[in-house]
Automatic annotation (TrEMBL):
CDD domains: MMAA-like. It comes from the Bacteria. Its EC number is 2.7.-.-. GO terms for molecular function: kinase activity. This is LAO/AO transport system kinase. Belongs to the SIMIBI class G3E GTPase family. ArgK/MeaB subfamily. The keyword GTP-binding applies. It is an enzyme of class 2 (transferase). The keyword Kinase applies. Keywords: Chaperone, GTP-binding, Hydrolase, Kinase, Nucleotide-binding, Transferase.
Length: 314
């Protein structure tokens, strides 16, 4: 076993941080480390926090972490940030807002850029969560960028997904259009001291009556006020109720198994794409792509040629 893997399993914080950096940089040792850590994963409770920009997700996570630490639980935070299309850098605003946890050995905070991925969750985020799981954290919170449809990606990684809404923000209609209503396991009405909270509660209840969801679990609605640190005991209890449901119904095991099967296909898709892009960068298919650009060939015909070339090279 790699020395780095051993250190992670022994709770070495620097080793975990380095492994995540390896993941982000696609280091040659990344796969070996993840393979070695995999048998020690699947223990942490992974909680997804998503919602529209301005809903107060980061402030809510900050207070939730403090509450969980008060219970003696160790917490990991993966903050998936928007990535600049020019520099590829992630904005670290979430880490700035969580400064009070920066020196707490029981909290591990990591910001990760989406790096142009089609969804709000970077592919590397799943692997980073696996590292923190093997590292031994009790709870891992994934806070996403909140950009609508792409947030559906969170359902492929979290055990429990919470959608944060605001009174008077028009969030319910937007969430319903994005399909988030169907993947939320619970709803958090943050800034519940603002007017319109009761109206928002009714709107969410009405939409839940229309939306498709697991017949055995109707999403809970919890009110919080982050600035006053109110409602967080009820929020944690709601998370625990859903976790209990997952365990007792077998839905949790089914979800995790489904996520892992999907991940295999994602890895295959990524590697095929990577191999084809490398060939194109080396000059392959240049004439073919030029013919498509000139409308001599259609994209489907060209794709068939590339796939046949890939199959014949195996």
């Amino acid at each position: 076993m790699q020395e780095l893997s051993k250190r992670i399993l022994n709770g070495d914080r620097r080793a975990a941080a380095r492994a995540i950096s390896y993941i982000e940089d696609d280091h040659p040792l990344k796969q070996t480390i993840l393979q070695e850590l995999f048998p020690s994963t699947g223990k942490a409770f992974v909680m997804g926090i998503t919602g529209s920009p301005g809903a107060g997700k980061s402030s809510l996570v900050d207070v939730l972490v403090a509450y969980l630490r008060g219970l003696g639980l160790t917490v990991g935070i993966i903050a998936v940030d928007p990535t600049s299309p020019f520099t590829g850098g992630a904005l670290l605003g979430d880490r700035i807002r969580m400064q009070r946890h920066a020196t707490d050995p029981g909290v591990f905070i990591r910001s990760m850029g989406t790096r142009g991925s089609l969804g709000g969750l970077a592919r590397a985020s799943k692997e980073a969560i696996r590292v923190l799981d093997a590292f031994g954290l009790d709870v891992i919170i994934v806070e996403t960028v909140g950009v609508g449809q792409s947030e559906l990606d969170i359902m492929h990684i979290a055990d429990t997904t919470a959608v944060v809404l605001n009174p008077g923000g028009g969030d319910t209609v937007q969430a319903f259009k994005a399909g988030i209503m169907e993947i939320a396991d619970l709803f958090i009405i943050n800034k519940a001291d603002l007017s319109g909270t009761n109206k928002l509660m009714r709107e969410v209840e009405q939409m839940l009556d229309l939306a498709k969801h697991d017949a055995a679990w109707r999403p809970t609605i919890v009110q919080t006020i982050s600035l006053q640190e109110k409602g967080f005991e009820e929020l944690w209890e709601a998370f625990l109720r859903h976790r209990k449901y997952l365990e007792e119904s077998g839905e949790g095991e089914r979800r995790r198994s489904k996520h892992l099967r999907e991940e295999v296909l994602e890895i295959v898709d990524f590697r095929i794409h990577q191999q084809m892009m490398n060939k194109i960068k080396q000059g392959a298919f240049g004439d073919l792509l030029e013919q498509v650009g000139q409308r001599v060939k259609d994209p489907y015909e060209a794709a068939d040629v590339i796939l046949k070339d890939y199959a014949s090279s195996k």
